[in-house]
Amino acid sequence: MKILILGGTQFLGQHVVQAALDRGHSVTLFNRGQTDADRFPDASTLIGDRTCDIDKLAGGRWDAVLDTSGHTPLEVGATAHGLSGEVGHYTFVSSASVLAQPVPSRPDESAPVEELPPCETCVLDINAHNYAGMTAECERIVRDSFDGPSFIVRPGLVVGPEDVSDHFAYWLRRIKFGGDVLVSRPEQPLQYIDVRDLSEWIVRSVESGHEGTFLATGPPELLTMGEFLSECRRALEAEAFFTCVDDEFLLEAQVEPLRDLPLWIPFDQENFMTLNCTAAEEKGLRCRPLPDTLHDTDSWDMARPWNLPTTGGLSLEREAELLDRWMSRLPL
Description:
The protein contains ten helices and eleven strands. It has 332 residues and is α/β, with parallel strands linked by helices. The protein has two domains: 2-155, NAD(P)-binding Rossmann-like Domain (Rossmann fold, 3-Layer(aba) Sandwich), CATH 3.40.50.720; 169-190 and 221-270 and 290-329, no CATH class. The protein is globular, with a radius of gyration of 21 Å.
């Protein structure tokens, strides 16, 4: 197949490009050429801004487009309109974050999504306040504006090698360091998807011409935060001791969910970690074993400078302060 990939220069986009090349497809990248421009010598590259240079794609005639870089309605609208008639199939990588609060337990693709006020459809600034609505509006634009079949993927937390958000790398580094480790509720449900599993599934789905909207995360069996942390400690053979603190303490201390303490979300939001991905599994989504993802993420992380700060996670100093505060609250 001839596949056009919008973006393809960061984390998921890079893995999608590699999966497409590995499966023998002819790949063209369209991006601004500002990040890792020489990574894929076997792919063709067209340089341009998707919001104003869409004419550079005229006459290309691709079988499919994979959109891994659309974040605003203006960006996605430009390509959904501009590529109608130029490509046969449009894949848009969205996010499970589009689900409207409060999220029901075990939500599937029929769950309500956030709505973006009409006055914000031209806003370019993405922030925590409007991200869900912006992304849901991008989905609607693809469904309504692209003249052809569309495939919309809603991943949960995407992890694995080259995840600079450090969802897994923070915990691997911290547990490897050892000592007393501040952790959240061990019973919290946890879902994630290895970027390589997600990327391969997306490419295979494009090959099959899949249509519709799909939540995409895993693993299919129930996993808790406590089990994840124990698997990390076992894989690293580390001398680490977990001190579990409650949500109230973390929120009072202004610890930011997912960022300051990767993978943690408060109890009233944990349904985001109970997504029902049966539809994607029936279309072939598979998740590799957790130890494989941990090992490969650790190998990638260890190839980085050890003193390179993680993007997410508590500093050792901040963690020690929180541990002292927590222990001082406990009765003697």
